[in-house]
Design brief:
Blueprint lengths: L4 H14 L3 E8 L6 E8 L4 H6 L2 H5 L4 E5 L6 H24 L11 E6 L4 H7 L14 E3 L6 E5 L10 H4 L4 H12 L6 H20 L9 H27 L1 H17 L4 H10 L4 H12 L7 H17 L7 H12 L3 H10 L5 H11 L2
Parallel strand pairs: 3-4, 4-6
Antiparallel strand pairs: 1-2, 2-3, 5-6
Length: 369
């Protein structure tokens, strides 16, 4: 699980939405003293229809950008810290162009975007943030320093409730975020942005469940967010299974699991793909539990091995429930299964329902000699 689930969600969410338009890096180092930019965006392409679908976020993606989302309202020190990151990144670009004997053009300069749930008038006035002219088309809730600074601030809770602001309101708090989630769920089921954003919300839900101690209902904002996300998870499964009645229920769940793993862990290796197919037939309750378990695995160098182990363990216990009584036996079989080549693993998994536990162990021993 992640220690800061909202921060992780914001980074992965912005990366997912902006990656079709350019290069996106999260937790990007900008100085030797480990000062990280939350999201660095470099536009490389322009898809007018896609940009329009992102609304205000798409307009932000017109330039190189440093994006700093805050879960809690930003304060004076937070703004200063963001500006330092902007200046450091600008200095780094200047050094790079000097080494290449080139001129640093204005279009290469990044713009800082500070995303904060709220911002008081006192804070905005103290820095000299201004409301842009109506003709500039930014709308309510967007503020700028003078142009030379290239700094914008978005007070998410001030944004009008409209489709153009939905993607940014998803990073708000309380009812603002919950309303955006409701609007997201109302989008057409075949909308790829809807699917990807919901999957990231499911990961956030699982991380909140893993990080948040038991609390009285209604006493904590995260509890309310958790409850807002939970029904969407079930709806997503039911929609996929409805589609699965035509294509096969297992195919529907396979598509969910494969897409879920791609969002959470990136490109899937052949062994992981081989393990997905036999899991697709799990009952809905067991399938949901598996997704939650996958969501709470800690990120690290061996995260793919952890994913494969959990998938193999699920396959083994689904086929041979008796192995649950012996963790040592289960661990040994899983180790041998994951030592197979992807092709041999696929063949073994295809034959697994016809094998006894003894035949499985004998076949693994033969394959590994």
């Amino acid at each position: 699980m992640t220690k800061f689930p909202h921060d992780q969600f914001a980074k992965e969410y912005l990366q997912e939405l902006l990656s079709p338009l350019g290069e996106v890096e999260t937790s990007k180092d900008v100085t030797a003293e480990v000062r990280e930019i939350d999201v660095w965006f470099q536009p490389t392409s322009f898809d007018g229809e896609y940009v329009q679908s992102l609304g205000l976020l798409g307009k932000m993606a017109a330039t190189v950008a440093v994006i700093e989302p805050f879960r809690n309202p930003v304060n004076t020190e937070g703004i200063f810290s963001c500006v330092v990151k902007l200046l450091n990144s600008r200095a780094k670009l200047g050094r790079q162009t000097n080494r290449e004997d080139q001129r640093l053009e204005e279009r290469q300069l990044p713009r800082l975007w500070i995303l904060t749930p709220t911002a008081s008038e006192l804070l905005l006035d103290s820095f000299g943030f201004r409301v842009p002219e109506e003709s500039e088309g930014w709308g309510k809730g967007v503020y700028f320093l003078t142009e030379v600074w290239r700094v914008g601030l978005i007070a998410i809770h001030q944004l009008p409730r409209s489709p153009e602001t939905m993607w940014l309101r998803m990073l708000g708090r309380g009812r603002v975020q919950q309303q955006a989630i409701a609007e997201l769920s109302a989008l057409p089921v075949d909308n790829p942005l809807r699917t990807n954003a919901l999957q990231l919300l499911y990961i956030l839900q699982a991380n909140l469940q893993a990080n948040t101690p038991p609390i009285p209902a209604g006493d904590d904002e995260d509890q309310e967010l958790f409850m807002a996300i939970a029904p969407l998870f079930q709806q997503h499964l039911e929609a996929a299974q409805q589609q699965g009645r035509q294509e096969g229920r297992e195919e529907g769940q396979r598509m969910i699991l494969e897409s879920f793993l791609q969002v959470r862990f990136g490109e899937l290796d052949p062994q992981t793909v081989a393990l997905i197919l036999p899991i697709s037939g799990l009952p809905v309750a067991d399938f949901t539990l598996l997704l939650v378990q996958l969501s709470t695995l800690p990120a690290g160098e061996n995260e793919h091995q952890q994913v494969q182990y959990l998938l193999a363990e699920t396959v083994l216990r689904k086929t041979f429930p008796q192995t649950e009584q012996s963790s040592e036996l289960s661990a040994g079989i899983i180790h041998d299964m994951l030592a197979l080549s992807p092709d041999n693993l696929s063949l073994l998994l295809a034959d697994l329902p016809q094998l006894s536990i003894e035949e499985l162990m004998a076949r693994l021993a033969q394959s590994l000699t």
